[in-house]
Amino acid sequence: MTDDLLARHQAVLPSWVTTYYGDDAIELVSGSGRRVTDANGRSYLDFFGGVLTNMLGYDIAEVREAVERQLATGIVHSSTLYLIRRQVELAEKIARLSGIPDARVFFTNSGTEANEAALLFTTNHRRSNQILAVRNSYHGRSFAAMAITGHRSWSASALSPVSVSWLSSGDRLRGRMKGLSDAEHIDAAVEDLREVLATTTSGDVAALIAEPIQGVGGFVHAPDGLLGALKKELDNHGILLIADEVQTGWGRTGDHFWGYQAHGVQPDLITFAKGIGNGFALAGVVGRAELVNAVPATSFSTFGGNPVSTAAGNAVLDYVLDHDLQANAKRTGTILLDGLRAAVGDAGIVGEIRGRGLMIGIEFVRPGTTEPDPAATLRVFDECRKGGLLVGKGGLYGNVLRMGPPLTLTDDEAREGLAILVDAIRTADAEA
Ligand code: PLP
């Protein structure tokens, strides 16, 4: 850093806005392709894609040109007053891709707001503020979004506009730790749902919200089909399903365009954010017209679907489809997963290597146990940085290394990052 930006950061930003690297904070100043450069001129391969935000990578000509064309118009703008061509175009594409008949798209600026909107649509439709959520989930940081976030330190409880019941068995790890097969796990989850519904006292439940793969929770995926099995039970009660696809959408999981498609289910509402703007603030919810249209007309967002973000969004989505990035995510994700399993699958600190497409998590444990090891995780994380690779960390116990590289990752870059990861894990394993 050319000046002490960290000290300046700490002097004016809230104390809880910490950087990923603490005292070794990095200031990124530019990016190109899958690489970013810091203020000292050091280049890193970015396996976290921003925060899964730069789905195409950095400085992508198609996105830059679309945004520059829009900027050149002078930014005539207001979502709430005039027609916006780029917004209509993007909504048409997302509605078509959602699989929801007669779908409507409501644009917001963040995933949190998208989930707020989805909660509004479902609670309004069902005339109930009761929501089902999944333990270990993450849906954002507004009051309602925190209330449905399945971590004790987040759930906002009494002051929240929604009342929440928890489903514990959406957490695949619990099933695995109990030694359940996928089928047994699904049965247990349905049983859990039935029990929750039998004991819910605050009126009819409006909706279940779930991430097909838990992101912040540590890239934990439910067994295939679990959401579909739950939906059958929900349908008996008229309860709606919201799929939070903020991390899992647009082909990232390789096998499917949306994460929920691994579950043989069609959600009533899908929320999206992060990657679709490739760095620009763009998010929203797509859902059944009868749900979306029914809320009061005052429910709009000033900047939601603004011309610049939607110009970027159109370019991003066209790029994803034109270049079949879903297939690229599957192929490069397989290189990483297979490579990791072969090289460090039996390392003592590696509890589990899991993933789908380019959403890959490595869970670290104390050797010979299933006890989480956040210290080993941190060690690997730091070694990766030293080796020139940026990754994410997290999970309920802080013991998961998370990777969500841009979907444009090349095979060579996958192998380059893999080599750094393997070295980092071996180093940390030798010290454990
Ligand atoms: N939902 C999921 C699954 C997320 O991972 C996130 C952010 O990490 C959000 C919602 C909140 O999105 P945002 O930070 O854009 O408000």
Task: Tell me briefly what this model is.
This protein has about 425 residues and is of the alpha/beta class.
User: How does the overall form come out from the CA principal axes?
Assistant: globular
Beta-strand percent range: 15-25%
Number of helices: 14
Model regions low in confidence, pLDDT < 50 over at least 5 residues = none
Description:
The strands form 4 sheets. The protein has a 7-stranded mixed β-sheet, sandwiched between helices. It has helices at 5-12, 49-52, 61-71, 85-98, 111-126, 143-147, 172-177, 182-199, 226-236, 289-292, 307-322, 325-344, 374-387, 411-431; strands at 28-32, 35-38, 43-46, 103-108, 130-134, 163-167, 205-210, 213-214, 220-221, 240-244, 269-272, 283-288, 350-356, 359-364, 389-390, 392-394, 400-403. It has 2 domains: 5-60 and 324-431, Aspartate Aminotransferase, domain 1; 65-322, Aspartate Aminotransferase, domain 2 (3-Layer(aba) Sandwich). The protein has 14 helices and 17 strands. Helix 13 packs across helix 14. The protein has 432 residues and is of the alpha/beta class. Strand 2 (35-38) and strand 3 (43-46) form a beta hairpin. The longest helix is centred in the last third of the chain and has 21 residues, at 411-431. The relative contact order is 0.15. It starts with a helix and ends with a helix. The mean pLDDT is 92. Bound molecules: pyridoxal-5'-phosphate. Pyridoxal-5'-phosphate binds next to helix 5. This is alanine--glyoxylate transaminase. InterPro entries: Aminotrans_3 (IPR005814), PyrdxlP-dep_Trfase (IPR015424), PyrdxlP-dep_Trfase_major (IPR015421), PyrdxlP-dep_Trfase_small (IPR015422). Belongs to the class-III pyridoxal-phosphate-dependent aminotransferase family. Homotetramer. Keywords: Aminotransferase, Pyridoxal phosphate, Transferase.
